[in-house]
Design brief:
Layout lengths: L1 E5 L3 H10 L5 E6 L2 H10 L3 E4 L5 H7 L6 E4 L4 H15 L3 E5 L3 H4 L14 E3 L1 H14 L3 E7 L4 E7 L11 H7 L6 E7 L2 E3 L12 E7 H11 L8 E5 L3 H10 L4 E6 L2 H10 L3 E5 L5 H6 L7 E4 L4 H11 L1
Parallel strand pairs: 1-2, 1-4, 2-3, 4-5, 5-6, 12-13, 12-15, 13-14
Antiparallel strand pairs: 7-8, 8-11, 9-10, 9-11
Helix pairs in contact: 6-9
Length: 318
């Protein structure tokens, strides 16, 4: 398949690394020649330097006979215009765009075929936010996955030492939870998968994959008492796309504090968020964290764009 990737950043590079393995004809476009040089040294693909939304650049990249365009630059506007150009001028069959800005994502009619012709919309920021939100709403869970539009859920739980699950056979657990419908898909014990049966004994540190309806899952988690204390106070470090989105989705249910180092971003968050305390400051400032009662936070989310800041602030919070 002939595929054009617009953007040689982290997302574009990751997409390219997977697609070149499948014997696709890949061309990657970016405005940064050094980024293209780096990626061309790693993978067998073509590169084109230029603005990804310009018709001449897309034509040079082979848009006339490309079967798919993935617009994953860091600029939403470039991604959207590139899809429009590919559709109007080159009749590209499949157009995929990465969109980060909430203002665009919340207006679904924008991406209808008769409007902006984006066939598939991807938003890594939204996916990350939704996953964090699920983990917060399921205290103690390692992973939460939805199936069938949320009608079914899979929740991964680690059995704790001296907890309800440790030393319990699946047969006994079924009896304890006889009024709750659920299945255990698999158990990971000592890093190895176990196909469970009634005689399987759960050990501390085992990871149990529960599957049930959302309603039953809530009951199940209450019964096995992963965490007795309900979560109330959440501190978020980073007021970028992910941090801002997370605060906006949780602020009506939890007490939220948002730390942001950039003054403009902090001011924007303070203006847009209704029930969130927004603080202009550095999340690696131990004195600031203590002043803002980090000890009283039930959850700390390190969501800045700097890995080093996230690691240090998480260690301080712990």
């Amino acid at each position: 398949m002939k595929i054009i990737i617009l953007g040689a950043g982290q997302v574009g590079t990751s997409v390219a690394s997977n697609l070149v393995k499948e014997d696709n004809d890949i061309t990657i476009v970016d405005i940064n020649p050094s980024a293209l040089q780096t990626i061309s040294e790693r993978f067998d693909l073509r590169t084109v330097t230029g603005v990804a939304s310009h018709p001449s650049v897309l034509e040079k990249a082979g848009a006339k006979d490309a079967e798919m365009i993935l617009a994953v630059t860091n600029c939403d506007e470039v991604n959207m215009i590139a899809c429009q150009v590919a559709y109007t001028l080159f009749h590209t069959p499949t157009k995929i765009a990465r969109i980060r800005e909430i203002e665009y994502l919340k207006n679904h009619p924008l991406f209808a075929q008769e409007a902006l012709p984006v066939d598939v919309l991807i938003s890594p920021d939204r996916l990350v936010t939704e996953q964090i939100q699920k983990l917060i709403k399921h205290p103690g869970a390692l992973q939460v996955l939805d199936f069938a539009d949320g009608k079914a859920q899979m929740v991964v739980i680690r059995a704790s030492y001296s907890g309800v699950l440790e030393g319990c056979s699946l047969r006994d657990l079924k009896e304890k939870l006889k009024n709750i419908e659920y299945k255990i898909a698999i158990i990971y014990s000592d890093g190895k998968p176990i196909i469970p049966n009634g005689d399987t004994i759960i050990k501390a540190d085992d990871e149990i994959f529960f599957i049930s309806s959302q309603k039953s899952m809530n009951k199940l988690l209450q019964h096995i008492r992963i965490q007795d204390k309900p979560l109330k106070n959440i501190m978020i470090s980073g007021g970028g796309n992910i941090g801002f989105r997370l605060a906006s989705t949780l602020e009506n249910e939890y007490n939220i504090k948002l730390l942001e180092l950039d003054q403009k971003k902090a001011a924007y968050a303070a203006e847009k968020l209704n029930n969130t305390i927004v603080l202009h400051g550095d999340a690696t400032d131990e004195e600031l964290l203590n002043e803002e009662n980090i000890d009283g936070a039930d959850v700390f989310c390190a969501l800045t764009n700097a890995d080093e800041v996230n690691i240090i602030s998480s260690m301080l919070a712990k």
